[in-house]
Amino acid sequence: MTDMNQDKQATYAALDAWIDQHFDEEVQFLQALVQVPTDTPPGNNAPHAERTAELLKTLGYEAEKHTVPEADVKAYGMESITNLIVRRPYGSAGDAGGGLTIALNAHGDVVPPGEGWTQDPYGAAIEDGKLYGRAAAVSKSDFATFTYAVRALEAVARPSKGAVELHFTYDEEFGGILGPGWLLANNLTKPDLMVAAGFSYEVVTAHNGCLQMEVTVQGKMAHAAVPHTGVDALQAAVVLMNALYAENTKYQQVTSKVPGIKHPYLNIGRIEGGTNTNVVPGKVVLKIDRRMIPEENPAEVEASIRAVIAQAIADFNAKGGYTGEDAVRVDIKRLLLANAMTPLAGNKPLVDAIQAHGEAVFGEKPPAVGTPLYTDVRLYVERGIPGVIYGAGPRTVLESHAKRADERLVLEDLRRATKVIARMLCDLSLIHI
Question: What residues have CB less than 8 Å from 222, skipping those under 6 apart?
Fold first, then answer.
């Protein structure tokens, strides 16, 4: 038993050494990925997939290109999606050979840079040990983490069975349905376990759900000189927004039992409306985001929000005496419904391996927790595929500046997370199914 343990430790040390020797190359790989924009919207992501496939080919990896039909993508509100799968079977017959198939998923699409950057958002500059750029932390970093972990595994401890698949997809920001959801629905993959892009200091086993809705408030335009001839949609929208924000006070009393997740929250993230300064607004459009804790029922949440909206508009019309054609109307469209992720019992080997190697590499055991974010992992879990979230990144989203100016990745986190994933793959390759 002691000799076996020594052999394992020697293998882990060899994996670590290989990653250290190739780390400059891994950083350059990541820089090349960050330098190709994937702003979503507008969501023209196929060029990044092509560039990723080119880079993988220089490493000896053939990426299958699965292009989502243009009509589906356009109807979805994006411009192009090409999802990639790299299959690495280790059985003697070119298949899993009785071992586990483990998928590693990261997404390339990302929100536009926005304002306030001190670095070029697509420059991938390195300063003080940090790599700057949009998607440097979420989640092009894990294109590199996962690719180089697999390379290390194959160079040092190539398994005799099992398989690893790299899933590089391009629809996380819009919900994942045309990313991993599309691959799964078309039976292009069915792994036994999966790991999705995440951060280095925790293993995420559960996450919130998300409901996004577009609410159109329709009044009647009028000249500002004679406002009584119109019905101000913006005033109605203010009443509506106050009613929705008031729900957040109630939500604070609805607490989750999942560590890392607190309570539901509703955010109004975008407001559009009006035609000119001297015109009473005839239409206002709100986009809302409602985070759902794992214990909530999505259908009940949506019904509750619709009821709040209906009551607020009814109150506005009643107070203003608006009836018939003058009454303010509301149209509600669901934009996204992402279910919460709840842990499957089969994720234990993933959690155990990542925690053991996280402690060995980082010097502290990453806790298994939930996160208030929502991710693509839920799409695998909904199909019975146990998964967790783990990858290269800081302790919090705030530290990474994800979705803010000057997004950055500490390169030592990338190096160490790559080691953890490589060690985990080495452990799981020994498990039969």
Answer: 228, 229, 230, 231, 279, 280, 282
Q: ∠ at Cα 343 (290, 294), nearest 5°?
A: 25
The DSSP code for 69 is: P
The residue type of 385 is I
Residues making up the chain, counted from first to last? 433
- Residues 362-417: pLDDT tens digits? 999 999 999 888 888 899 999 999 999 999 999 988 899 989 999 999 999 999 99
Alpha-helical segments (H) within 321-410: 348-362, 377-381, 397-400
Buried b (16+ CB within 10 A) or exposed e, 120-139: ebbebebeeebbbbbbbbbb
Q: How far is 11 from 7, CA to CA, in rounded Å?
A: 6
* Closest C-alpha to 265, from 341, 113, 374, 109: 374
* DSSP state at residue 346: G
Task: Write out the H or E segment, with its range, that includes residue 218.
Answer: strand 209-218
Q: Give me the sheet containing 163-169, strands edge to edge.
A: 64-67, 82-89, 163-169, 101-107, 193-196, 387-389, 203-207, 368-371
Angle between helices 298-320 and 233-251 (to 10 degrees): 140
In terms of Cβ atoms closer than 10 Å to its own Cβ (0-12, 13-18, 19+), residue 270 is exposed
Q: Identify which of 173, 122, 193, 200 has the alpha carbon closest to the alpha carbon of residue 357.
A: 200
- Reduce the secondary structure of 17-57 to three states and give it as a string: HHHHHCHHHHHHHHHHHHCCCCECCCCECHHHHHHHHHHHH
Compute φ and ψ for 116, nearest 5 degrees: 95, 10
Task: State what percent of residues in the chain have pLDDT above 70.
Answer: 97
